[in-house]
Amino acid sequence: MSISFDNALGIHEKALGFRAQRAEVLANNIANGDTPNYRARDLDFAAVLAEQNDKTSRKQVGLSRTDSQHISAAGIELADPALRFRTPFHPSIDQNTVDMQQEQASYAENAVQFQASFTLLNSKFKGLVGALRGE
């Protein structure tokens, strides 16, 4: 009898990785708060979840070349569908879309969600260890 970590841990492992990646994106936004023409970005959890669910049933989009001089799309890597530019609430003169208060609030919210995912994952591991010990 073997233990399947995918079944035992559920989505918490992927959620923890997503939260870490989102923390990096939000920290990058905060670091570039004064950079002219910088566009704030954020990750969309729903898009990541949908991508994970559709990974096995992903459909390939075909492009047709109507002329022999067109560039083929083979080998072109599509951008991460979850990484999106954020729409600013207040336009700035230097075209920077970072709203420092929104970024800090999003970062704090993400930190709380990261801690929650980590706690749930930790409790799953404690349950597995208890099952292995026969407790």
From TrEMBL:
Any Gene Ontology biological process: bacterial-type flagellum-dependent swarming motility
InterPro entries according to UniProt: Flag_bb_rod_N (IPR001444), Flagellar_basal_body_rod_CS (IPR019776), FlgB (IPR006300)
Keywords: Bacterial flagellum, Cell projection, Cilium, Flagellum
Family (UniProt): Belongs to the flagella basal body rod proteins family.
Gene name, Swiss-Prot/TrEMBL: flgB
Listed PROSITE patterns: FLAGELLA_BB_ROD
Intracellular or extracellular location(s): Bacterial flagellum basal body
Function: Structural component of flagellum, the bacterial motility apparatus. Part of the rod structure of flagellar basal body.
Transmembrane is among the record's keywords: no
A Pfam family per the record: Flg_bb_rod
Subunit structure comment from the entry: The basal body constitutes a major portion of the flagellar organelle and consists of a number of rings mounted on a central rod.
Database matches in PANTHER family: FLAGELLAR BASAL BODY ROD PROTEIN FLGB, FLAGELLAR PROTEIN
Keyword Cytoplasm on entry: no
GO cellular component: bacterial-type flagellum basal body, rod
Record protein name field: Flagellar basal body rod protein FlgB
Domain Flagellar basal body rod protein N-terminal: 12-39
